[in-house]
Design brief:
The protein is α+β, with helices and mostly antiparallel strands and 97 residues long. It has one domain: YhbY-like (Translation Initiation Factor IF3), CATH 3.30.110. Helix content is 38%, strand content 21%. Helix 2 links the parallel strand 1 and strand 2. The protein starts with a helix and ends in a 13-residue tail after the last strand. 21% of the residues are buried.
Length: 97
């Protein structure tokens, strides 16, 4: 569970990121969740955009992706969500969280 200081630090890192994945009208698929999981293993932080034609809200998509990938939701703003999952073997983001 992230505390407010950790969440704030991750939000500052995520502000510079472009969305790496999109959730469209097909919703969250197992293949998409697997791709996001691999991305999180490499980068630890991912920004996801939920398109207007999606049946999901950004919050719903973030919750489902977090449960499928074992990640934590950092923030959901508008149509974008940021997820974080620490890589225990090779951490990318400083553990000073």
């Amino acid at each position: 569970m992230l505390n407010s200081r950790q969440r704030s630090y991750l939000k500052s890192l995520a502000s510079k990121l472009e969305p790496a994945f999109q959730v469209g009208k097909g919703g969250v698929t197992p293949e998409q969740a697997e791709g996001i999981s691999k991305y999180l293993t490499a980068h630890e932080l991912v920004k996801v955009k939920v398109l207007d034609n999606s049946l999901y809200t950004a919050d719903e998509a973030a919750r489902e992706l977090a449960s499928l990938t074992g990640a934590e939701i950092v923030i959901v703003i508008g149509s974008k969500a940021v997820l974080y999952r620490r890589n225990p073997e090779k951490p990318v983001i400083s553990q000073n969280l």
